[in-house]
Request: fold
Amino acid sequence: MKLYEFEGKYLFSRVGIKVPKGVLTTGHVDWKGTAVVKAQVLEGSRGKRGLVKVTDDVNSAIDELKKEGIEKVLVEEFVPHDREIYVSALMDRDTGEPMVIASRHGGIDVESSKDLYKRVIPMERGVMPYDVIAFEKYLEVKGLDAVIKGLYSLVVDYDAELAEINPLAVTSSGLVALDSKVILDDNALYKHEDLLKELGRSYSPDSYVELEGDVGIIGNGAGLTMATMDLVKLLGGNPADFMDVGGGADAERVRYCVEKVGSNPRVKKIIINIYGGITRCDDVARGIVEAYSKVNKPIFVRLVGTNEEEGWKILQGHGIKVYNNALDAVRDALR
Amino acid sequence: MDRNTRVLVQGITGKEGSFHTGLMLSYGTKVVAGVSPGKGGSQVHGVPVYDTVEEALKEHEVDASIVFVPARFAVNAAYEAVDSGIRLVVVVTEHIPVVDVARVVKYARERGTRVIGPNCPGVIVPEETLIGIMPTRAFRRGKIGIVSRSGTLTYEVAEILKEYGQSTVIGIGGDPIVGTTMQEVVEMFDRDPETEKIVVIGEIGGTMEEQVAKMKKEGKIKKEIVAYIAGSTAPREKRMGHAGAVVYMGMGTYESKVSAFKETGIKIAKTPYEIKDLI
Reply:
């Protein structure tokens, strides 16, 4: 679950990382002096999209953002600073331990940066002073202790998949996190129900990812669903989404998935690729049929595995095209 | 692993556990005992059930365990198996927090237990034994070793290669951190006299595929590898179903994996169906 900037900053202050003074608002505020007015949206590159404004006329900036359809706005004090740096923490997949990453250049696209310092800090011992010294030397700053320990704690204690400060401002009175990017592990949210309550967030993870194309994609299993997306693209189509019904999906789950994908106005047709193991083909077929009349778009179903004949009968009885082979289904759909 | 491997099922009385115990038994897997706290003394498909692993091991010899326990309690089950000295633990359960997985995987490794998974379909040695949830119709005894980060896609590929048959098929799981890596399985296949060629089914995220390529390049792997990578059309920083199928900081993109394989002469199938032609 990705957090909004203000939520991430709330967590930052909880773990001892300094953030600018600010207020979250949906309307006008009483503010004196220069402020940074920032739209609270989950998508990145807000700067480029004009969703961050440095201004003395705070309420006009808020009005402009509201005109863009922005609901929540974070108004923060402007923090004068000499330099911007970058620090983040995440689980390193190779070592299975948390890793802290730093760069001397803040506000950058970290992916393309070659100037990075990475350090794995094993959970068995946690952050030690000599870790902090190594980062301070690399970044040429003082007082990094709270930042490193705070980000590390977000990974280990709060189950953050990624906790990132980009940029971290170097000021005469210490280090201040100007932005936050925190992504919590969906699978660990049950451990942090109190936090979710405090943030006023409820979250039900779903595999659905919307893409730009017009061919709806549904599969069972992440790998097979991705492979179906890739196949559609390879054969000249454009996938509109990724939707994995999951293992052992029943008719109700399949109905929900087909209706969800079908309700995307860009979707012109839907390809469903099912290899039934724990998932039963008759259940899948029943779910598709239930959604079919409501969705009212052409559906191409590849259906093999457990209770296959029954599933085929159900679909064919409703005039839905069924295939043995995924290639045939995709080719027909793209015709 | 063969038909004599004795298996313990943890979470045997649950819906998934009992269902798959039945399927494993009918495939010929020697399921000798099950564990479900509070259900000791009962039976599932004729298999005796115990409250703890320790109690089960007093009555039975066990070579491997398979865990079907729900996510919140699965870590407990895995620690219990490791502490009882079981050498192979297959964790089918999905949705275990990654920090917890990292801890238990390390704990097991330090004590000489191999963990496969979590979030995996398990292992099958066709016509010998199944410790997992794979639909057996896709498999036939043969000479191809398959290692995969996926479930259904593995079944699909196994069925495509059915006329060649498979020596062993291992689903290592779709999580960011797994007990047994793709590199380790490829190394085992390379040493395995039953395996002639290796099929690698990877996906975006992480760097296991890149490390397999590196091993091949350094000459550590002698056998021929054919690979397929899912997720060429997946956007960055979006999780594609599997907890592990996500690209952060540009690490483990489709392009990075494909170019690493190309450099080493590992053949890359553009679709799962092309694997058959390449092999």
